[in-house]
Amino acid sequence: MAAARRLLLLLAVTLAAAARAHNITDILDGYSEYSLYNNYLSQTKVCDEINGRSTVTCLVLTNGAMSSLAANLSLADVKNALRLLTLLDYYDPKKLHSLHGGSELTTTLYQTTGDASGDMGHVNITNLRGGKVGFASAEPGSKFQATYTKSVKEEPYNLSVLEVSDPITFPGLFTSPSAASTNLTALLDKAGCKRFARLIVSSGVVKTYQAAMDKGLTLFAPTDDAFQAKGLPDLGKLTGADLVALLEYHALPQYAPKASLKTMKGGIPTLASTGKGKYDLSVVAKGDDVSMDTGMDKSRVASTVLDDTPVTVHTVDSVLLPPELFGGAPSPAPGASADAPASAPAPEASSAPAPSPNHDKTKPKHKSPAHSPPAPPADTPDTAPAESPEGDEEADKADDKNGATAVSMGIAAMVASVALVGATLL
Q: From which residue to which does the signal peptide run (predicted)?
């Protein structure tokens, strides 16, 4: 009996180890020759995208190759280059030299961004003459500039780190939009956040956002539909100072793309934060679904409309309501004014107090976006981004399918073995 228990415990520990998460930056910290590559993984937050994958192969560059790549590129372009060097399947030296037919197409992180058209997000792995293995973009006419050099780290069927001679590129890869040249309000208008754009301009908060862009900014922009949600408090009754606080509450003073948001724990300071726990947000993540939690309600991160290190702009499904302004009381019942934000006056013209918690005492708590909001106003763009995460989820599932299958089958077999051994010995 005791022996059986010890064996079961040992196998359980083995299973846990097989499913453990990896940390690519920690792994590369032990290799000084990849320090520049590792530094760019952290700066661009591609490390969080890699760590969020159960099966991945990282093609790393030495400091010399990485320096040549990044010499004249923006961080946004470097980020795409690193994504193209990240394969969403497990490859070790043995697999590289035994490709079926001598060649194979595989998916990369770049494919998951939504910016890749055609075969841009795929890499062709081919056995070349002389025993070399080459990597090239699947775009027609691409050359095999990158070749396999050596294996750095292998954690079978979860993580493989392979050194390659050169980056993988193709014409058009380095054309990412720059935050410095971005007209923020025009970007928000195009993303279906016109009312939010008008509010940040009329309140002057757009200048606060722009001042934060150099060091790091993450913006959560409510869509126009969010301002028509049932139960939304009448924002037109806020004082000028409270309106500014509300809008600053929709931004973090740091760069946090969606993959990085998933890793954040506890209270996250916003631009409105004035002390410990004041005007903070928290993240609720489940799979690829990410929501921002105010303590009163949750708002889903619907899409990313700009990701240019160190600035990212996400759209959210509902207005983020801080308890510091709305007292933690239930939101007004359906019928509350939802049109006020469209014509909200400038701060100096608004002096009405914030909504009283007592006034809303008996009204049901607002739970956006559990039900569909009213039809958007006529000036709302036809391509509102609220549905894009479904496409992201499908892309992620497809990207993980090849590599994750081997891991799933292996763990399932181990679980069956545990049950069989336990039944025999007990």
A: 1-21
